[in-house]
Structures are given as structure tokens and as C-alpha cells.
Amino acid sequence: MNGSRQIDNHGRLRHFLSIEGLNRKLLTDILDAAESFSGVTEQTVKKVPLLRGKTIVNLFFEASTRTRTTFELAAKRLSADILNINITQSSTVKGETLLDTLRNLEAMHVDMFVVRHADSGAAHFIAEHVAPHVSVINAGDGRHAHPTQALLDALTLRDTLGSLDGARIVIVGDAVHSRVAHSNLHALTTLGASVVLTGPPAWVRAFDGWPGVTVEPELEAALHGADAVMALRVQLERAAGSGVPSPAEFIAGWGLTAERLDGACPTAWLMHPGPANEGVEISAELSTAERSLIGRQVENGVPIRMAVLSRVVELGR
Ligand code: CP
Question: Whole-prediction pTM value?
Fold first, then answer.
């Protein structure tokens, strides 16, 4: 088997690198498992022994608040041991290569790496080079994929709407630079939703022709009939030189405000993966409005990551 393939020859999840290629049944099974893990979070003792004896390493080469901490909590609630490697204080600053770092950690008999990296494809690269008993979970790589974010978004929508089948989900903003958008397009369409993408043409036109996806550059037209609206973070660090509008032009055309949503889609829910540039992609008042699901998205990060960790480690039991 090619080491970077996430499904092994027996149909089991060897790694979790991308939503692309995963079928509806597998995604639904993970959402269902997450729903049952939500109960653990409500217990007095928030722990189950499912991953006792397993060692997981959080290997974050890029900043994170939500993803790193919810993976850590998920691992602890499953009774795994988890190490957080502080890359800025590791020997990578002395020139140790990525593969050297992996080899050293593997020598400590770890079972899984949870990887966040600024380079697209980094998680696949690591999956190609780990020992056969080690699994890799992608916690966000460049603009490529953020598969557990897409699953927690899908769980939040399923909890709120009852089903994703036939739902109209509008994604607003910098889709082309967004790993969240790429993973969500795969997850939401596989689960039966239709997705409308809106934003400056340079940020959305690449998705014209995707199955289940409509590109509508004009915001008001896109919002009409929406069940939920997902704002994307404007990737200020990745957008330079790509012929995109200034922040002021983006705000004027696509910045989400209560007034705009009340006018075009008064019952639509609001989502944002975070971290948000408040006053750019969403107004400050919207992020805490009654229609905002942003807190629920973060909350669902723990059970979704419990479901993914337990599904991947299943292989080694
Ligand atoms: N949504 C998300 O990935 O947030 P963090 O960068 O804080 O992990």
C-alpha cells in the first residue's frame, strides 16, 4: 500500500488526510460517532478508556488555537497520552529536518501524529514517511485541506438543520486560498447539500464546474434562500499579489453584516471557522448574534476529533 493513502486495502482509515475520496457512509459514521462522544463531554468524569495506552503527538508547525487544543482535549477524553511539541523550542531551529524530527519521535514509540503545517501536501509527505504502525491526521496544510474542520462544520449544520440533504449553504470570501473551503466543498456536497460560493471573482472562479457547487459573485443573489452562511477568513498572509480587491473593496462587496443577512436571508445561520478578521469578513455584532453558530463549531471540535482519533487508531487495536 502507498503509505500516504488514507484508506487501506481493507477499507479502513489508515490516515486522515483529506475529505476528498471519502464516501458518504464513512462521513456519516464519523458524524454519528461524534454525536455519541458529545455525551462524554457532559459526564461528570469526562473520560472513556478507548485509547488508553496510545500515544499521540500534536506536531504544529503553524499557529493554532482551536484545532490544537480540541485535539488535545479529544485525546485526553479518550484516555490517550498526548505530547504537544513546541516547534519553536525543538531542534528544528538548529537545523533538524522534518524527517529527523519524525524519526526521533517515532523512536519513542508514538502511535499517531496530528500535523498542522503551512505547506500544502505536508501531511501527505509525512504519511509517506512514517513507520507502518503510525497514523497521520491532517490538522490543516497550507491551502489544501482541513478535514476535521469540515467535519465539525458538517456536524454543526446537521445538528442545527436536522439534515444536510438539500440544504443551501453559502460560502463567502477567499475560497481559493482556504483549506477550510476546499474540505467543506467536498464534505457538504458528499453529504447532500448544495453549495453556493460568492466572493471576488479571483477567489471563487476556480470552482466553476465543481459538482454540487454554484459560483455566484454577487453577494445578495448568493444569499437568497440560504439555510446557512459560512464566512471564510480573508487569508491576508496568502493573498498578496493575486489581483484581489483591497480590504475596503472586499468589505463593500462581501463583508457580512446583520443588515445584509436580515435583508437577503433572515433565517439563515452564520458560521465562521475562526480566527475571524472582525470588521472584514463579518461584523463584530454578527459573531455573537443569535443566528451565530461559531461557538457551536468550536464546541463540536472535541467530539469530532474524538471520533476521528478513535476511527484511525482502530486499525492498531
Ligand atoms: N479553525 C481553525 O483551524 O482555527 P485554529 O487556526 O485556531 O486552529
Answer: 0.95
The C-alpha atoms of residue 178 and residue 180 are separated, in whole angstroms, by: 5
Q: Is the CB of 67 under 6 A from ligand 1?
A: yes
pLDDT in tens, 3-43: 558 998 888 899 999 999 999 999 999 999 999 999 998 89
Q: C-alpha grid cell for residue 260?
A: 445584509
First to last CA, the chain: 19
Residue 35 within a domain: yes
| 131 shares its domain with 229 | no
Distance of CA 258 to the CA centre of its chain: 25
Beta strands in 80-124 (DSSP E): 81-86, 112-117
3-class state of residue 145 by DSSP: strand
CATH of the domain at 135: 3.40.50.1370
Residue 18 CA to ligand 1 center (angstroms) comes to 16
Q: Which atom of ligand 1 is nearest to the CA of 140?
A: 3
274 Cβ below 6 A of ligand 1: yes
Would you state the torsion angle of the CA atoms of residues 116, 117, 121, 127, taken in this order, to the nearest 10 degrees? -50
Euclidean distance between CA atoms 222 and 23, whole angstroms: 27
Do the Cβ atoms of 68 and 58 come closer than 8 Å? yes
Q: Give the domain extent around 153.
A: 148-298
Q: Tens digit of pLDDT for each residue in 117-132?
A: 999 999 999 999 999 9
